Amino acid sequence: MRIDVLTIFPAYLAPLELSLVGKAHEAGLLDLRVHDLREWTQDRHRTVDDTPFGGGAGMVMRPDVWGRALDDVLTPGAHLLLPTPSGDVFTQATAHAWADEESHLVIACGRYEGIDARVAEHYRAAGVRVSEYSIGDYVLNGGEVAALVVVEAVARLLPGVVGNPASLVEESHGEAGLLEYPVYTKPPQWRDLDVPDVLLSGHHARIARWRRDEALRRTAARRPDLIAALAAGALDAHDRAV
Ligand code: 6GU
């Protein structure tokens, strides 16, 4: 997969060279390119923004600069992503869809009050798939952190990126629709706290049942909305008794 990120703060994306995403990039599993939007400015001051028509606080990013940049970076079939707090919420399902179905994502990071609305309108009219997405109900200063979130969430689902694909199976927001159960490692006693006995028992069926119970309890306590959204038949009689 190819991912291009356009931003006025390329240094904000530096963490993508680290860890698993950095390794995927080095291994050629992910073709990641970060661009400085100001390379597409044409004035001495490298201006990317201006005052909003209709008045109001803050600045708006100019469509002409974005248009030159996106015309250069978009390829046929690319999916244009616009991070914005007013977008559709990005979820694990979105991450899977993009990892499985897309070959080129272009993430256009806005700053200030956002990007002139004609940019999304123009590319949609030109037949480009455009998705405006939010990473949650809070306000950030720009799209860069939301770009980091999408690159990491999508890249780890690409074939070969996560060493042990089994670790993708039982995680929170996975197929079961539940939060993950608590995990423990050595030492079995730490300060005054013991690892739950069942996990040391070697009894695989009991361990699986305990983990599911914990996942259910945790999800009911922290995210009752996820319990309500479970498919009919997702919970058996034992589950409902937890
Ligand atoms: Cl995608 N952008 C900004 N600026 N703020 C956000 C967001 C995105 N998602 C949540 N808050």
Automatic annotation (TrEMBL):
**Keyword annotations from UniProtKB, A to Z:** Cytoplasm, Methyltransferase, S-adenosyl-L-methionine, Transferase, tRNA processing
Name assigned to this protein: tRNA (guanine-N(1)-)-methyltransferase
Q: What is this organism's lineage? A: Bacteria, Bacillati, Actinomycetota, Actinomycetes, Micrococcales
The similarity annotation says: Belongs to the RNA methyltransferase TrmD family.
Localization annotation: Cytoplasm
Give me the residues that bind S-adenosyl-L-methionine, please. 110, 135-140
**What this chain does, per the record?**
Specifically methylates guanosine-37 in various tRNAs.
tRNA methyltransferase TRMD/TRM10-type domain: from which residue to which, for each copy? 1-228
**Entry-linked NCBIfam families:** PRK00026.1, trmD
Q: Which InterPro entries match?
A: Alpha/beta_knot_MTases (IPR029028), tRNA_m1G_MeTrfase_C_sf (IPR023148), tRNA_m1G_MeTrfase_TrmD (IPR002649), tRNA_m1G_MTases_N (IPR029026), tRNA_MeTrfase_TRMD/TRM10 (IPR016009)
Taxonomic source organism: Cellulomonas gilvus (strain ATCC 13127 / NRRL B-14078)
A single GO BP annotation from the record?
tRNA N1-guanine methylation
Does the keyword Mitochondrion feature in the UniProt annotation? no
Q: What is the annotated quaternary arrangement, including any partners?
A: Homodimer.
Source superkingdom = Bacteria
Its catalytic activity? guanosine(37) in tRNA + S-adenosyl-L-methionine = N(1)-methylguanosine(37) in tRNA + S-adenosyl-L-homocysteine + H(+)
Q: Which GO terms describe its molecular function?
A: tRNA (guanine(37)-N1)-methyltransferase activity
